[in-house]
């Protein structure tokens, strides 16, 4: 009887541990709207991370940057194609600490399309240090989806 109780308890404990999992999302960021980025990237990732943590799951997020969103990941606007854009400078001051927090606190990875960077004359050294730029957008998307990341367009 004691052996049965130990076996039953072990099965219950094992099943509760096996319930915990990993949830993964890859955000395809093309928007140039700072408010949308704040809500749909920053807000959504924080919400999802907290939600899945309460569910006992780990949440992992990747943001693939392309389209009109490049400008929000440049650390020195004065040495970029966006020099003199005062509206962008104000938006960037607000977004910069939020994006850094996503990277540092939530472990978010940021991948920027290298092809689009070249087309816009954006140099890798002008970006935030946590932005990866070694591949084109489609390669990033295909690789992350093959790693099991859900596709979320923004």
Model description:
The chain has 154 residues and is α/β, with parallel strands linked by helices. It has one domain (28-153): Hypothetical Protein Ychn, Chain: A (3-Layer(aba) Sandwich). Helices cover 49% and strands 17% of the residues. It contains five helices and five strands, in the order αβαβαβαβαβ. The protein has helices spanning 2-19, 34-54, 86-106, 114-119, 137-146, and strands at residues 22-29, 58-65, 109-112, 131-132, 150-153. A five-stranded parallel sheet has the order 4-3-2-1-5, with helices on both faces. The longest helix is centred in the first third of the chain and has 21 residues, at 34-54. The chain starts with a helix and ends with a strand.
Secondary structure layout plus pairing:
Elements: H1 2-19, E1 22-29, H2 34-54, E2 58-65, H3 86-106, E3 109-112, H4 114-119, E4 131-132, H5 137-146, E5 150-153
Parallel strand pairs: 1-2, 1-5, 2-3, 3-4
Low-confidence segments: 13-18
User: What number of domains?
Assistant: 1
Outline: globular
Structural class: alpha/beta
Strand count, sense and barrel status of the largest sheet are: 5 strands, parallel
* Spatial separation of the terminal alpha carbons: 57 Å
CATH-defined architecture: 3-Layer(aba) Sandwich
Q: From the 3D structure, determine the CATH topology.
A: Hypothetical Protein Ychn, Chain: A
Placed side by side, the strands forming the largest sheet appear as 4-3-2-1-5
- Give the name of the CATH superfamily: DsrEFH-like
Helix content: 40-55%
| Count of strand segments | 5
Evaluate the radius of gyration. 20 Å
Mean pLDDT: 89
Beta fraction: 15-25%
| Assembly status | single chain
CATH class, named Alpha Beta
Order of helices and strands: HEHEHEHEHE
